[in-house]
């Protein structure tokens, strides 16, 4: 803990972001989004199914060019995938190379020009330790459980020291116990690596449990319905944090907002 407050600076700045898919019947998935993610913040994004969360993340990551608005990382416009950004997807089985070992999957993203072989080994050991997979470097992804494979994907993302991690429903395909463990893992590595995280999820409880702020999206064409600061005490705990009256109120408020949005659109 520091004794002096340092003003937070915005790492990611989204201004007027919108995306319309072209084709015979153009479809506007993302309407108009304005938000910032401060350095070191954990921001969750929730919204009704199909509201454009993945489209938004693709635009923010530079994988897709938005049809409207701008994305800037540390003030520089994002026009392709920036070096300082890492993505973790839901489908870990397709994001790891099955023919490479765990260490091989991680070393693949490390630059051989700037890191010596010894430094790469140290980096791999460090991130495997951070995700609780000491000693698993020689295994192949198919020898690991789903939760372990997602840990490898997280380790790989951390290995090249991105400034921001974008996560798209990363824990949607694992069982409840593993999900809770991976949530706590994210809170630990966020502290350990000083990571800034933008986290898309369908799970309202998860969004509140992890975040400093939750952004609630409307249905497509999505806009931001609410930006909710989550002032729950840290460190958080899977049992005692979720028992807090404040937690229960926050999750109910967000669930109500999402339901209202869905009903508004149906009535329209
Ligand atoms: N390539 C595409 N061309 C046309 N429409 C698309 C394309 N990709 C997505 N869409 C549409 O855009 C909308 C938003 O999709 P997107 O996957 O971004 O939403 P989402 O919120 O991530 O969905 P989910 O809640 O299912 O994870 C959906 O109606 C989808 O059908």
UniProtKB/TrEMBL annotation:
<dbReference type="InterPro" id="IPR017871">
    <property type="entry name" value="ABC_transporter-like_CS"/>
</dbReference>
<dbReference type="InterPro" id="IPR050166">
    <property type="entry name" value="ABC_transporter_ATP-bind"/>
</dbReference>
<dbReference type="GO" id="GO:0016887">
    <property type="term" value="F:ATP hydrolysis activity"/>
</dbReference>
<keyword id="KW-0813">Transport</keyword>
<keyword id="KW-0547">Nucleotide-binding</keyword>
<dbReference type="InterPro" id="IPR003593">
    <property type="entry name" value="AAA+_ATPase"/>
</dbReference>
<keyword id="KW-0067">ATP-binding</keyword>
<dbReference type="InterPro" id="IPR027417">
    <property type="entry name" value="P-loop_NTPase"/>
</dbReference>
<feature type="domain" description="ABC transporter">
    <location>
        <begin position="12"/>
        <end position="244"/>
    </location>
</feature>
<dbReference type="Pfam" id="PF00005">
    <property type="entry name" value="ABC_tran"/>
</dbReference>
<dbReference type="GO" id="GO:0005524">
    <property type="term" value="F:ATP binding"/>
</dbReference>
<protein>
    <submittedName>
        <fullName>ABC transporter ATP-binding protein</fullName>
    </submittedName>
</protein>
<dbReference type="InterPro" id="IPR003439">
    <property type="entry name" value="ABC_transporter-like_ATP-bd"/>
</dbReference>
């Amino acid at each position: 803990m520091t004794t002096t407050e340092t003003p937070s600076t915005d790492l990611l700045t989204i201004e007027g972001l919108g995306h319309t898919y072209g084709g015979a019947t153009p479809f506007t998935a993302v309407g108009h989004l304005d938000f910032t993610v401060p350095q070191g913040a954990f921001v969750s994004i929730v919204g009704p199914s199909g509201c454009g969360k993945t489209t938004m993340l693709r635009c923010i990551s530079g994988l897709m060019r938005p049809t409207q608005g701008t994305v800037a990382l540390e003030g520089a416009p994002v026009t392709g995938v920036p070096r300082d950004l890492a993505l973790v997807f839901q489908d870990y089985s397709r994001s790891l190379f099955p023919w490479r070992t765990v260490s091989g999957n991680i070393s693949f993203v490390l630059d051989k020009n700037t890191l010596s072989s010894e430094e790469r080994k140290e980096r791999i050991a460090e991130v495997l330790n951070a995700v609780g997979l000491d000693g698993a470097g020689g295994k192949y992804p198919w020898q690991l459980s789903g939760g372990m494979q997602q840990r490898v994907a997280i380790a790989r993302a951390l290995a090249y020291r991105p400034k921001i991690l974008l996560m798209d429903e990363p824990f949607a395909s694992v069982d409840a116990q593993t999900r809770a463990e991976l949530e706590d893992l994210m809170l630990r590595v966020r502290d350990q690596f000083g990571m800034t995280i933008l986290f898309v999820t369908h799970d309202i409880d998860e969004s509140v449990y992890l975040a400093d702020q939750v952004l609630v999206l409307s249905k497509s064409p999505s806009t931001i319905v609410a930006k909710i600061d989550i002032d729950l005490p840290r460190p958080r705990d899977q049992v005692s944090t979720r028992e807090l009256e404040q937690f229960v109120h926050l999750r109910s408020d967000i669930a109500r907002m999402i339901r209202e949005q869905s009903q508004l659109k149906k009535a329209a």
